Amino acid sequence: MNNLIKTCLSILVLSLTIGCKETKREDTASNNETKEQVVPTDLKWSQRMALSEMHRFPDPTLLDFQKEPRWSYTNGLVLQAISRVIEKYPDSSLYNYIYDYGNRMINEDGSINTYKIGNYNLDMIKSGDATLYLFDKTGEQRFKKAMDTLHAQLVDQPTTSEGGYWHKKRYPYQMWLDGVFMAEPFHTKYALTFMDGEAQKKVLDKIILQFDLIEKYNKDPKTGLYFHGWDESREQRWADAKTGLSQNFWSRGMGWYGMALVDILDHFPKEHAGYERLVSYLKGYAEAIIKYQDQTGTWYQVLNMPEREGNYLEATGTAMFTYTLAKGVNKGYLDKSFMAYAEKGWQGILDQFISVEENGVVNLNKCCGVAGLGGDPYRDGSFDYYINEIIRSNDPKGTGPFMFAALELNK
User: Fold this and answer.
1) List of the chain residues with pLDDT < 50
2) Keywords on this record (predicted)?
3) How many CB atoms lie within 10 A of CB 127?
4) I need a labelling partner for 118 at 20 to 30 A (CA). Which of 29, 49, 139, 223 fits?
């Protein structure tokens, strides 16, 4: 009898054990099913990043980790990059994503939600590129009216004594490298599309002047690198008392300028007297940045101080430099030898900064979250300032240029 009871108990325990194992197997299968591929891994890197951004930020008005919808350069940068992806790899879901931004931020009368023309902020012009893309696709007049407003801002933008745009009204007499990328490629396309004759020439002349002044004041003749900001008034604490220049060569600051050069050359008329100057500026720029490329293929946050403690290899500037070099070669502005540096930069991005989640979502890591000059709390442009700003993943100032670079290199 005892043996019979022991046998029965053994059978019962075995049954329960098998049942538990089967249940565990089912749970595992269920978990695997929830990890479906959000982003297919057999697509081009540009497509994968575009889809990853749409997955991270289903609402395009909240790009850049925002809690409330806003009209901003970061939205415009990512959406412009996505528009270029669509042009090469058509995708209705990506197009709808761009349209959703324009549809919700631009009203029927052409007014732009959250935008204030009186701030005279050059950053706010950048979303004009995505707006022009939508106007080309839809013909909706509200998009044209919104662009007219952005043009009107630039007509009245406060300037230095020589006509250089202040970066913002609240940053008087200051020219930053960022500003030419935010405003000038869009303004060039606007002038060529909607203006002609003397009015068009006046705008193009003013655009060239912005680059001429950056070359005159922000460029360091010794290294060929560019200082982030220049204050004509010399009133800012970050500005050198003699030169008015900020203290350091910030990677992304220079990245903005390089992208401005290669993007404006897509459209700027070759017959204009300033065209060849733009090409020469790009050539000098390219010669300078390759001298500071790290052996990994990437670039440091503060470009010329790789050995200084706290400095780090940074993703956004690296993506911008890689794009600028690749596009410069592809368009014939730069010698073909520069493509090797672009290829090395791309491999460095993959090796140092990219991670891919199980669902296929692509992350760009080690991005400087934000950096500027002045403001409140005050940003002094010191080495310590630049290396201590927040570092985060998937900053749009990196993901956008990553897509640009991937397209130029056909990766």
Assistant:
1) 1-33
2) Hydrolase
3) 29
4) 139
Which residues on neighbouring strands pair with residue 174, listed in sequence order? 231
Instruction: Output the six-digit token pair for 232.
Output: 């004509």
Cβ neighbours, 10 Å, residue 146: 27
- Beta strand residue intervals within 148-296, DSSP E: 174-176, 229-231
As a whole-number percent, the residues of the chain with pLDDT over 70 amount to 91
Domain boundaries, the chain: 39-409
CA distance 213 to 378: 26
Q: How far apart are CA 209 and CA 213, in angstroms?
A: 6
**78-97 per-position pLDDT tens digit:** 999 999 999 999 999 999 99
What span, in angstroms and rounded, lies between the C-alpha atoms of 70 and 75? 8
Peptide bond preceding 396 in cis form (omega within 30 of 0): no
Question: How many other C-beta atoms can be found within 10 angstroms of the C-beta atom of residue 392?
Answer: 16
Encoded tokens for 203: 């705008």
* C-alpha span between 339 and 321 (Å, rounded): 11
What is the C-alpha separation between 20 and 236, in angstroms, rounded?
70
pLDDT for position 25:
33
On whether the CB atoms of residues 130 and 77 are closer than 8 A, the answer is no
Task: Annotate 333-369 with b (16+ C-beta within 10 A) or e (fewer).
Answer: bbeeebbebbbbbbebbeebbbeeeeebbbbbebbbe
Q: Which two tokens stand for residue 27?
A: 């749970």
Looking at residue 36, what is its pLDDT? 84
Alpha carbon distance 297, 322 (integer Å): 9
How many whole angstroms separate alpha carbon 47 and alpha carbon 34?
Answer: 22
Q: Would you say domain 39-409 falls under CATH 1.50.10.10? A: yes
User: Distance between terminal CA atoms of the chain?
Assistant: 75
Contacts of 102 (CB under 8 A, 6+ apart): 130, 131, 134, 143
Collapse the DSSP code of 17 into the 3-class scheme (helix H, G, I; strand E, B; otherwise coil) and give the result.
helix
Helix (H, G, I), strand (E, B) or coil at 344: helix
The phi-psi region of residue 140 (left if phi > 0; otherwise alpha if psi is between -120 and 50; otherwise beta) is beta
**DSSP helix/strand/coil, 382:** coil
Structure tokens at 347: 């491999």
How far apart CA 168 and CA 124 sit, in angstroms, is 10
pTM of the model as a whole: 0.91
